[in-house]
Design a protein that fits this description.
The protein is α+β, with helices and mostly antiparallel strands. It has two domains: 125 residues, Phosphorylase Kinase, domain 1 (2-Layer Sandwich), CATH 3.30.200.20; 212 residues, Aminoglycoside 3'-phosphotransferase, Chain: A, domain 2 (Alpha-Beta Complex), CATH 3.90.1200. The protein contains eleven helices and ten strands. Strands 1, 2, 3, 4, 5 and 6 form a six-stranded antiparallel β-sheet that branches. A two-stranded antiparallel sheet has the order 7-10. A two-stranded antiparallel sheet has the order 8-9. Helix 3 packs parallel to helix 7. It is globular.
Length: 354
């Protein structure tokens, strides 16, 4: 980023830290240390707290430190409204209580709130704040093996099985992913409408491929059933950076994007993380083995997965294309090449049937 962008970024981070410190005064955490984890749509801090626990020993009062780790999330009110954030926490609580899955546990404020608005005088930004207990575990990154991915498949099936029978309470509201949100407009990837350094890469041939893909996806999605066996609440971002392992147990974090959607879409996002690996087919096989241990997959699921794999490619490409961050934009040419090779294969009936 250039000098002015760096100044703006630093200034915004300073404001986020001030808001974070103000938010933490709503909890009984004592002295805390803040460490920035992410600053994108949301701003995420790791919170290391030292609770001052009072005990009595030999007639004298002593104070013993009790450490704890938490995650503080600051959300832009323009992205998700309060009822949507509260609904995410309702589902997390249900997953912990009813499915016995290890997912983030929200922490109440002293006044019994899970989400609240935080404002500070002389700070222009306003955010919603929520605190979660730290989820212990480790990310495997390049060490992901077929046997580990099998456990991820089982975890996802348990999550989907819970979603299948979940009855949302009154006032529960989470986004519903709809085709028109991203692909329903004719201007998709229209070079003249977006200021991008890669406009010249969107040639007439590429535009034809993208528009053809959009039309194919529209037709395919219209044929898919939206019954409870196929459609419900999903994580919607269960990539390697959002699932971890603790003593062999799979755990998941970051449910910020959870929404009503097709279960196969959730699967496509997770399997997208192993695309191109030499052992991709073995990995997919073990994932499905783990999933089917808990829950049956729909008929022709492999063929239908091609639909959602194509959507994830298009979504990723559109994100890189419209990003205002130079480092993100720089990844667009290579990903466009990847998409140009894979989208025709996904639309080919002969390929989809193999």
């Amino acid at each position: 980023m250039d000098t002015q962008e760096q100044v703006n970024y630093t200034s915004q981070l300073r404001q986020m830290r001030i808001l974070a410190e103000a938010a933490l005064t709503h909890y009984d955490l004592g002295t805390v240390r803040l460490s920035l984890l992410a600053h994108r749509g949301n701003t995420i801090f790791r919170v290391t707290a030292m609770n001052r626990q009072r005990v009595f020993e030999e007639g004298e009062e002593s104070v013993l430190p009790e450490s704890g780790r938490f995650v503080l999330r600051l959300c832009d009110p323009s992205s998700l409204e309060m009822p949507m954030l509260q609904s995410e926490l309702i589902w997390l609580a249900a997953l912990r209580r009813e499915a016995e899955l290890v997912v983030p546990e929200p922490v109440f404020t002293r006044t019994g709130e899970l989400v609240f608005k935080v404002m500070v005088e002389d700070v222009s930004e306003v955010r919603y704040a929520m605190l979660f207990r730290w989820v212990e575990g480790r990310f495997v990154d390049g060490g992901l093996s077929p046997s580990l991915l099998e456990r991820v498949g089982t975890f996802m099936a348990r999550l989907h099985q819970h979603a299948r029978y979940f009855t949302p309470p009154a006032g529960f509201i989470r986004p519903r992913w709809e085709w028109e949100q991203t692909f329903g407009r004719a201007i998709f990837f229209e070079p003249s409408l977006i200021d991008s350094p890669h406009q010249k890469l969107i040639t007439p041939k590429v535009q034809h491929l993208l528009h053809t893909t959009c039309e194919w996806l529209r037709e395919e999605l219209q044929s898919l059933p939206r019954d409870p066996d196929n459609y419900g609440l999903i994580h919607f971002d269960l990539q390697q950076e959002n699932y971890l392992f603790h003593q062999g147990e799979v755990r998941a974090i970051d449910f910020n994007d959870c929404c009503w959607n097709y279960y196969l879409f959730d699967i496509a996002i997770t399997l997208g993380g192993i695309a191109g690996r030499p052992d991709e087919q073995a990995m997919r096989k073990t994932f499905f083995k783990g999933y089917k241990r808990i829950r049956a997959l729909p008929a022709h699921y492999e063929e239908r997965l091609h639909i959602f794999t194509a959507i994830t490619i298009m979504k990723r490409m559109h994100y890189l294309w419209t990003s205002s961050t130079p480092t993100t934009q720089a990844a667009f040419p290579a990903y466009l090449q990847f998409a140009s090779e894979h989208l025709p294969q996904l639309m080919n009936p002969k390929v989809r049937s193999t």
